[in-house]
Amino acid sequence: MRRLLDFLYDAAAALAALFMLGLLCMVLLSVVSRQLDFHVPGTDAYAGYLMAASGFLALAHTLRRGEHIRVTLLLNALPGRMRNALELWALSIATLLALLFALYSCKLAWQSHAFHDISTSNDATPLWIPQLAMALGTVLLAVAFLDELLLQALGRRSAANSGAALRNE
């Protein structure tokens, strides 16, 4: 199960990187088209879709790598049992919020499909298509938070060590 979850998180991160490359291509196409006096319709809208997709799909991977922002000042000051209790509480709340976010983003994509909702820009993209990336990303984030919560409850969660605290500017 661990290998499957890690594969899902890594695959979503790879897909996010691919969408980030697509975003770069859209921005470059937009810049080049302005310089050469031609217009490619929809580049701004697709750049926005690709940016959102890359951000949402990277959330679970970022969580598992310990790169999300954490306020550890209080956590580091607490003794073992209190620290564990606070970690469990925080992960429980985060899991609940992530599950709600996943539920509503999936519902949004479903409703956009059911109502044939399209983009208001000139590309007229069916909105459920770019919303799928948000739904998938939030579902994976909820799974990742549930994974972290279960690991913490079982005492098998490794401490998040991103090294960010060591990089002082």
UniProtKB/TrEMBL annotation:
InterPro entries: DctQ, TRAP_DctQ. Keywords: Cell inner membrane, Cell membrane, Membrane, Transmembrane, Transmembrane helix, Transport. It comes from Verminephrobacter aporrectodeae subsp. tuberculatae. The keyword Acyltransferase does not apply. Pfam families: DctQ (PF04290). The complex comprises the extracytoplasmic solute receptor protein and the two transmembrane proteins. The chain crosses the membrane at residues 7-33, 45-63, 84-105, 125-146. It is a multi-pass membrane protein. Its main location: membrane. This is TRAP transporter small permease protein. Residues 24-152 form the Tripartite ATP-independent periplasmic transporters DctQ component domain. Belongs to the TRAP transporter small permease family. It is found in: Cell inner membrane. The lineage of its organism: Bacteria, Pseudomonadati, Pseudomonadota, Betaproteobacteria, Burkholderiales. Part of the tripartite ATP-independent periplasmic (TRAP) transport system.
